[in-house]
Amino acid sequence: MPRMALGLAYDGRPWRGWQTQPGGQTVQDTLEAALQAFVGRAVPTVCAGRTDTGVHAVLQVVHLEAPVERAERAWVRGLNAHLPESVAVRWASPVPESFHARFSATGRRYVYRLLVDPVRSPLWVGRAGWCFRPLDVAAMREAASALVGTHDFTSFRSSQCQAASPVRTMHSLRIHEHGRFLLFSLHANAFLHHMVRNLVGGLVYVGLGRQPASWMAELLAARNRSLGAPTYAPDGLYLTGVDYPGFLLPEADNSHEILETT
């Protein structure tokens, strides 16, 4: 059977995350139901990175073993006809058997969108984090610089994290200002459970003046999650891209969509 890769986008608000659950209501369950309706049989899927409840994706990558041969455009239109409005297949592409959505990936990209405003916005509930106090962005950027490189990120992993090692390589962590929003753009080889949300929580503590910029480096070295800031809400977290060197896929990074909607 030919192997196909799909590029997905989804609004995480209605879903209990990516991974299939006994009670359903996950993106994987919904996609696999659409696949069964489209090809007439059950088709398991593998994703690049599992997202939690309420977390969004503008570019999630999935692979599957296609039981039928269809044109790429037919996969997109056919699956989208069976998907709810909160999930869409952006593209479909045949890939070699050596391609694996998870294990072939050498990097993942996330953006966290934070609304900084004294008053909450009903239009951004579930789509952006919120901070009602002003933030010192210069101090946050100074703190973020300590996180770039290869480190033990134990202080920023969930207690439920199942990763064998807490060591990750952060290629970049940038903070952009766009009107009332701060956009945290993160690129790493991989992320631990709740890692991005815990990093954002720590950086917000620095921005509020509760901790100095040097605290993030100290927290990183402490390797103790209990010393960190609270985990920030999933609302503002978006998976924006996955790195697959050596494989030609339609999109590797779709973070521009986050910038365009601010």
Overall description:
With 262 residues, this protein is α+β, with helices and mostly antiparallel strands. The protein has 2 domains: 3-104, 2-Layer Sandwich (Alpha-Beta Plaits); 107-239, Alpha-Beta Plaits, CATH 3.30.70. It is built from 6 helices and 10 strands; from the N terminus they run βαββαβββαβββααβα. A hairpin with an 8-residue loop joins strand 2 and strand 3 (56-65). It is globular and about 60 Å long. The mean pLDDT is 94.
Sheet/helix structural class: alpha+beta
* Number of contiguous helices: 6
Low-confidence sequence ranges: none
Order of helices and strands: EHEEHEEEHEEEHHEH
Mean pLDDT: 94
Number of DSSP strands? 10
Instruction: Note the main sheet.
Output: 10 strands, mixed
Descriptive tags:
Alpha-Beta Plaits; single chain; 28% strand; 262 residues; alpha+beta; ten-stranded mixed beta sheet
Please outline what is shown here.
By secondary structure, this protein is α+β, with helices and mostly antiparallel strands. Helix content is 22%, strand content 28%.
